[in-house]
Amino acid sequence: MKTALFDYDLPPELIAQEPAEPRDSSRLMVLHRADGRIEHRRFRDIGDYLRAGDLLVANDSRVIPARLHGHKSTGGKVEIFLLRKLDQAGSEWECLTRGRNLVAGVQVQVEPLASGEEEPAPPVEATIVAVNPSGTRVVRFAQPISPYLHQLGEIPLPPYITAYQGDRERYQTVYSRPEGSVAAPTAGLHFTPELLVALRKQGVGFETVTLHVGLDTFKPVEAEEVEKHTIHTEWAELSADTARRINQVSLQGGRIVAVGTTTVRTLEWAATGAQGIDPYDPQACPWQRTAAFAGPVDLYIYPGYRFRAVDGLITNFHLPRSSLLMLVSAFVGQHHPEDLDWGRRTLLAAYEVAKQEGYRFYSFGDAMLIL
C-alpha cells in the first residue's frame, strides 16, 4: 500500500491553536465502522455511546518540561529538547538541539526559568557528547537533571501550535501521573473530572496504562510503501491489575474502549508481543486478551492488522501520512477484511466531512469516537 494514499490537504485555519473550554465542550464525531455512518455531537455526550460494563482505558503518562534554554561560552543561544533518557541517573539524554555549531565537545550552560523565587536554581552545565546520524545530539549534563526539570524547562507544545499563550497544564490530561512523555496523549485532553465521575455512575469503568510518548509518534512516514516503514520504539507498562480487569470485562461481554492511539499500541502489544504472538498472523490467537508487561513497544499497526484487544477508539484528527492515521484506518476497516482499503477510504471521507463542518484538527482539536 502506497504511503501517498494517506495524504490529505488541510487548511491551516483548521489547526486548533488553543483547547476548547471547558475540555468536554469540544466537538465529537462518532464514526460507525460497520457502515461508515457519521454523527455529530459534543464530547460531553460520549456517555450516550457507552454502556454499563464497558471499560475505558487511557494513557496516564505526563509530559515533562522537555524544552531547555541556555547559551554557549561564546554567548550563542542554544535550545535543547529532551527526547530520551540514556542512563538510569538521568545525566545523559538524546536531544534535539537548536543553535549554531553544536558539535561534539561544545559546552552549554542551561539557564533556569525566570521565577519569583528569591534564590533561583543555579545554571547547569551540559556537554554535547556526540552527533547522531539522524541529527539528534547526545547531551551529558553535569548532574542528573530530572529532579530539576520544573526549574529548568518548559512544557513543549507541537510546532503547529504557534499562538497559544495559556496555561501549559491544558496540555496535560486530568488523570496524568508518571512523567516521561515529550508530547501529550491528546485524545485524553477532552475528559474532565466531572465527566469521568458521570461515566463511572453510568457503570463505565476506567483504567490506565502508561506509554511515554516520543516525538517520532508524529513524524510522517517517509517510506514510499507503508509496509517498509520502520516504526519507532516507546516504553510502556500495563500492570497485572489492569490486565486482569481488562480480561474480566471482556469475559463479561463489556467493550474495551481505548483513549488514544498510544493506548491502542499498548493494549495490542499486550495481546500480541507480550504473549509471544506475531501480530500479523491472522491465525494467532492470544490465550488471554491482555497480559501484563513493562518494556519497549514497537508495534506498527496499518491496514490488514487484526485487532485483538480493542473494541472502540477515542482519538483526535491526525496529521497526513502519519503512522497514527494508518493505525486508525486499520481500526476503521476491522469489520471489512475482504477490502484492506475500506478503512482508509472511510476514514479520509470522514476527515473531508470534518473539514466541511469546521472541526478543529490535531492536538488541541476535536475528537472522534469510532465504534
From TrEMBL:
Cellular localization per UniProt: Cytoplasm
According to the UniProt entry, its GO molecular function terms are: S-adenosylmethionine:tRNA ribosyltransferase-isomerase activity
Q: Which domain of life is it from?
A: Bacteria
- Please list every transmembrane segment annotated in the UniProt record, as residue ranges: none
One GO cellular component term = cytoplasm
Query: Where mainly located?
Result: cytoplasm
Say which family it is in. Belongs to the QueA family.
Assembly description? Monomer.
Q: What is the designated name of this protein?
A: S-adenosylmethionine:tRNA ribosyltransferase-isomerase
Organism whose genome encodes this protein? Litorilinea aerophila
Q: State which gene encodes it.
A: queA
